[in-house]
Amino acid sequence: xxxxxxxxxxxxxxxxxxxxxxxxxxxxxxxxxxxxxxxxxxxxxxxxxxxxxxxxxxxxxxxxxxxxxxxxxxxxxxxxxxxxxxxxxxxxxxxxxxxxxxxxxxxxxxxxxxxxxxxxxxxxxxxxxxxxxxxxxxxxxxxxxxxxxxxxxxxxxxxxxxxxxxxxxxxxxxxxxxxxxxxxxxxxxxxxxxxxxxxxxxxxxxxxxxxxxxxxxxxxxxxxxxxxxxxxxxxxxxxxxxxxxxxxxxxxxxxxxxxxxxxxxxxxxxxxxxxxxxxxxxxxxxxxxxxxx
Length: 293
Known about the structure:
Elements: E1 3-7, H1 12-28, E2 31-38, H2 44-69, E3 73-79, H3 82-92, E4 97-100, H4 116-121, E5 128-130, E6 141-145, H5 152-162, E7 169-176, H6 178-185, H7 191-214, E8 222-227, H8 232-243, E9 247-251, H9 264-272, E10 276-280
Parallel strand pairs: 1-2, 1-4, 2-3, 4-5, 6-7, 6-9, 7-8, 9-10
Antiparallel strand pairs: 5-10
Helix pairs in contact: 6-7, 8-9
């Protein structure tokens, strides 16, 4: 990595993002770029006042990163809609990684990540790391949730290229839908027969993951196959907890698929995770930023 972009609103949530980004920069030798977006859809005097205050705070943060952490760091203010400003900064800096703080957890769980984070993740060309957990050190275990569909190889390669966790244990998790198997066989088999079909589905999923892993470069500590619980996201989160993984890696979807851009599984993981989540965009977004929808 050469450049890590950190989006900050000077909140405690943003402090987590800055600290995690600083740890990653020290580990990789990357430079940090801090960005704060002032919403320009306000009276001019408010915009000017916020810009002046934010500029001073950013200068102080950048100076601290340079002097205390020994990491090259610059900072910028952008006047724009918060979402558009972050996307522009990611494009202008050619960021290899964007780090954001955890979303505000709201009572209305269907309101996903306070639109700015959601729109940013589905629009920028670079991977986005949501720093949910207090950053106390390097990652020791990273869990990659793979569906073995189109683009899975790209996701794993892009994660490896980032080199976020060079000394961490790395696990591949594949979740298969056992409920579909039960329903498909429900009228034709008794309980013993259905259990046999689920076991066969497990074996098939094991073989598919093993074949995928055999084609990867580098060492992968574990291959995990799990039957889906109430949702695939719930199964992923449970596996991350079971494996004590500090970071979950997921892939976002291309525009035009049946699901929303991010995919419902990714949305649910981001919404409920109590640990860091790295969202990696599809291959067709590597050359630029998708138009906001």
